[in-house]
Amino acid sequence: MPQAMDLPRNEEGIATALGILKQQFGDRFHTGQAMRDQHAHTTTWIRAQAPDAVVFPASTKEVSGIVKVCATHEVPVIPFGTGTSLEGHVNAPAGGISVDLTQMDKILAVNAEDLDCVVQPGVTREQLNTYLRDRGLFFPIDPGANASLGGMASTRASGTNAVRYGTMKDNVLSLEAVMADGRIIRTAQRAKKTSAGYDMTRLLIGSEGTLGLITEITLKLQGIPEAISAARMSFPSIDAACQAVMTTIQYGIPVARIELMDELNVRAANAYAGLDLPETPLLLLEFHGSDSAVIEQAEMFGSIAEDVGGTDFAATATAEERNKLWKARHDLYWATLQLRPGAQGISTDVCVPISRLAEAVTGAQAKAAELDLLAPIVGHVGDGNFHSLVLIDMDNDDEVRRAEEFTAYLADEAIRMDGTCTGEHGIGQGKMPYLIKELGPTVEYMAAIKTALDPLNIMNPGKIFGPRR
Amino acid sequence: MPQAMDLPRNEEGIATALGILKQQFGDRFHTGQAMRDQHAHTTTWIRAQAPDAVVFPASTKEVSGIVKVCATHEVPVIPFGTGTSLEGHVNAPAGGISVDLTQMDKILAVNAEDLDCVVQPGVTREQLNTYLRDRGLFFPIDPGANASLGGMASTRASGTNAVRYGTMKDNVLSLEAVMADGRIIRTAQRAKKTSAGYDMTRLLIGSEGTLGLITEITLKLQGIPEAISAARMSFPSIDAACQAVMTTIQYGIPVARIELMDELNVRAANAYAGLDLPETPLLLLEFHGSDSAVIEQAEMFGSIAEDVGGTDFAATATAEERNKLWKARHDLYWATLQLRPGAQGISTDVCVPISRLAEAVTGAQAKAAELDLLAPIVGHVGDGNFHSLVLIDMDNDDEVRRAEEFTAYLADEAIRMDGTCTGEHGIGQGKMPYLIKELGPTVEYMAAIKTALDPLNIMNPGKIFGPRR
Fold it and tell me: Where is the FAD-binding PCMH-type domain (chains A, B) (predicted)?
């Protein structure tokens, strides 16, 4: 499998660090095989590379202590949230210590007047939103999985709500992080705007643990909208659906979600949930606003979509019907896996300028057909981001090769269209060659920053830049 | 005056670079005193420090050539847009070459379907919006001055529309830049989202020319809203006005602008424009949306504001009346200078969490009174950002000292309130000690990045980090 090369291990340093951390952390320190394997397991096709130990710190100070031990003995530090990343981010190609942050799961402050909150990195998205609900607030970023907010920041996650609310880069005010020398920094104050020096907040967001370990996050919050409505519409073609998306965005209709499901996905959803949606491309939408605004927005969308051949428009403002409509979307991963029981699902993640979306999606469908792969497509199409879930038998070498050819094709095509090989999953181990294809010499300046801030290369080594950086 | 220390000059290198660039650029190369002085002049109280020469490149390739010459001979490179920065950003404390980008003023592409455009750095905000108007699009960031977009990106500018549309960090998709070694990079593709490696776009935005020279900018655009309405309301106190702002933001009313003018500013506006606004704190608002939405939003604001004692509500959806209402705000700089003809206006720029805004503004008013300074306040209060324009006689040493005490007080107070010494103007030469107060050891990691990307310290030296970094 690609990009999971083992890197040279510092056996002596690892042994020493293990001894020290075992002493310090007692029963919060683990070297059992099951625990180690669990911390290398990710929802990816990349081969697992287990760490040498897993430690569960309970405070920033403890994280700082761990990193200091690892810096002294030149041992890799791999942060771990919920393990839902998709590109081998939690693998330990050179061994080292997995720092599991699930015990740092406190919501430290909710500043309702300022629409922000401060959380530890192990707090999950759903945990936060459950906590906030009674206060009339919510955190909008929804990558699908119930990921930890530290992990979401580390990979610059986004998901279905990004078309309206942006990505993690747009929803973090400040970070506390432990740097490679073990020192603790805060990237910014809690003010909504700042021009105070380099944007260290945005530098750490998406750095995948390679520059520092995030130990606290100050997040922007949103008021729960007065009204939420949902709508769906079927289209005769991907082209028509994409045209409807483009026009909707151009008209400035503030859709909160606008998701594309291709024919295959609709078929999977019908089978999985017993629905009878027309088995043609489908757009699923959500609108947030005042009672009158959400009705107006749904109507405007309906009218735009009808003009390009949309049919079977259905809209609802009741929570029950809306949840039913969106459940099909949320269950899609499981539904599509049922298209080929026992297969491994490999998610691609390209993002292109929206004007190229139809071309990119139909190109992906054609390529999958050419390679005889089952690869249903779902997309956060308001942002030009879509995922093929390639369903393959990992024991069939030829299928694996074809899946690799398919993912390479998608990345190359996205780059050719002025898009990116990764809209929201990150580079990790899986996308390293595409990053270089995409940004060329820019990657050398990224690597110079990595070297400047982590000269020993102990922070999640072997990610983003590859073995030798 | 503070923070305008001269730095050691590399006389030999400067002389050599001047000779080479004169040869290469002919009549686009200037060493005349008037031209040099003009390029050190900024709307600031910081003493001017002229460059040794000014050069007008016409292309990225020419910029790259200039930087390569300067790198070879270790000569400072100071980018220049329109000279409207406020913290000594265009000063040349160690001499060097001012790179005037006004001839790089082409709008290279408008991708209406993708709501983005590509511009050279010398394009100004007004030039772009004039060009876009017929296409039904606009670029929302409005820092007041008709600044160049390259300069706005360099200082992470924002202004009156930021409460709705964000700052430059939120409205740039990608940058082309010439790095300190003269190489040209592109920070990202044109896709709306990306998780492809470190966020070099956001790292360069706000780096004030210290890491690279921005030569091309891909900007997000907005559709011109169907309707724009404006409103104003007077308040018995700063507290009441701030309470109205907080509730408006909490309710999620998507105000496009919400500006506070204190009593002194209203008096200045009345005198300057012949208005008869009540001389109490005033909020001035703008709403963007559909015809029905802007009316609904103005009404909701009016009702919120009335609850906290707001009076004299006036709203309008006609362009003529709206422009009249906003002209008073736009002319405020000139109007307030008339409060003390001949005085120099010194703008402060703190930004605090919105829950601390009333305390920060009234504290500033009290401190100005205590120091016997005339310092009217205007604020982008939806973001917690406000400016005192301190009106002083620069020949009166005691007044200058008191103004320094005032600006120091404001920065310290903002930092104490978890806010920042600069919401949108940047650090430049003027705010260096406050940056360290604000972010402490974080500044050392910023400096490490600076050293890694510009080891010779030729890119706008003496800014952000001070003489020795």
Answer: 47-224
Q: What is the CATH number of domain B227-329?
A: 3.30.70.3450
Strand partners for A379: A260, A386
Instruction: Write phi, then psi, for B185 (nearest 5 degrees).
Output: -125, 160
Asked if residues A107 and A134 have their Cβ atoms less than 8 Å apart, the reply is no
Residue B445 touches chain A, beta carbons under 8 Å: yes
CB-based contact B193 A445, cutoff 8 Å: no
C-alpha distance from B250 to closest chain A C-alpha (Å): 6
Residue A183 contacts B where some CB pair is shorter than 8 Å: yes
The structural domains of chain A, with segments of one domain joined by +, span 107-223, 227-335, 342-425
Report pLDDT digits (tens) over B346-389.
999 999 999 999 999 999 999 999 999 999 999 999 999 999 99
Task: Determine the residue type at B195.
Answer: S
Give backbone dihedrals phi and psi of B257, rounded to 5 degrees, phi first: -145, 140
* Phi and psi torsions of A45, nearest 5°: -90, 0
Q: How far apart are CA A426 and CA B182, in angstroms?
A: 29
The span from the CA of B447 to the CA of A347, in Å, is 38
Distance between first and last Cα of chain A: 20
Residue B467, pLDDT above cutoff 80: no
CB contacts under 8 A, A 99-118 vs B, are 111-116
Q: What is the CATH code of the structural domain delimited by B340-425?
A: 3.30.70.2740
| pLDDT value of position A42 | 67
What DSSP assignment string belongs to A138-162?
E-----SS--BHHHHHHTT---TTH
Q: Which residues of B touch A452 (CB under 8 A)?
A: 448-449, 451-452
Residue B466 has pLDDT above 80, yes or no: no
Structurally, at CATH architecture level, domain A342-425 sits in 2-Layer Sandwich (3.30)
Which tokens go with B349? 């720029």
8-state DSSP, B224: P
**Min Cα–Cα distance to chain A from B391, Å:** 24
- Comparing CB atoms, the residue among A155, A199, A422 nearest residue B203 is A199
B14 CB-near residues (< 8 Å, 6+ apart): B52, B73, B75, B95, B96
Question: Measured between alpha carbons, how far apart are the two ends of chain B, in Å?
Answer: 20
In terms of phi and psi (left: phi > 0; alpha: psi -120 to 50; beta: otherwise), the region of B215 is alpha
The hierarchical CATH code for the domain B107-223 is 3.30.465.10
User: Which uninterrupted H or E stretch holds B416?
Assistant: helix B397-416
Compute the distance between CA of residue B399 and CA of residue B402 in angstroms, rounded to an integer: 5
Residues 6+ apart with CB under 8 A from A117: A107, A108, A109, A110, A111, A128, A132, A137, A139, A218, A219, A221
Q: Does B22 touch chain A (CB under 8 A)?
A: no
Classified as helix, coil or strand, A284 is strand
Residue B11: is its pLDDT beyond 70?
A: yes
| CB contact at 8 A, B453 and A449 | yes
CA-nearest of B432, B389, B391, B437 to B413 is: B437
Helix (H, G, I), strand (E, B) or coil at B414: helix
Q: Do domains A227-335 and A342-425 have the same CATH topology?
A: yes
Q: For residue B121, which amino acid is it?
A: P
Tens-digit pLDDT profile for residues B226-240: 999 999 999 999 999
Phi and psi of A437, rounded to 5°? Answer: -60, -40
CATH class for the region spanning A227-335: alpha beta
**A221 contacts in chain B (CB < 8 Å):** none
Q: Which of A125, A120, A121, A124 is nearest to A142 (CA)?
A: A125
pLDDT for residue B319: 86
Q: How far apart are CA B45 and CA B51, in angstroms?
A: 18
In b/e form, how buried is each residue of A144-153, taking b as 16+ CB within 10 angstroms?
A: bbebbbbbbb
Query: What is the token pair recorded at A124?
Result: 């999950």
